[in-house]
Amino acid sequence: MRNFITKTGLPGTIPVQQAGVNSSSTPDWKLLAMETWETDHYSLTLQQRWFSDGVFGHQYIVCGDGDCPVSTVNNPTVDYNHMDGAFYFDVSGSYHLTDKVSAYFKVNNLFDRDPTPSPQTNTGVDINPSLYDVLGRMYRVGVRYNF
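RE: above sequence
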């Protein structure tokens, strides 16, 4: 596991491990891969975005079966502390109509994967937009003209 320790410097607080916390923006692992096929007339690009499973926060103590320590400010108790990672697949392409004009398309989040709910994000929708796709599948189509 990678480390990303935050220290507030306030009396009575303890350092907090942020690596692997998917309610923030620091998962343990992230991957971005792209493959492009291109000819003189067209191009096609596939893009994969992935990040690993994580937790709401490492400071939480998960309780189970009634065996739970007293909750403290530094180590609150919760009954669940897991956030699924995500995999997004995007596809885009273009076709050269003339030397100066090309048409293009792009589909983000092709499989329309929903974001994992995240408590305490203060966004009003309880979704972490810094990691998860909050818009869903999105289409773009257009024409480019080169001068």
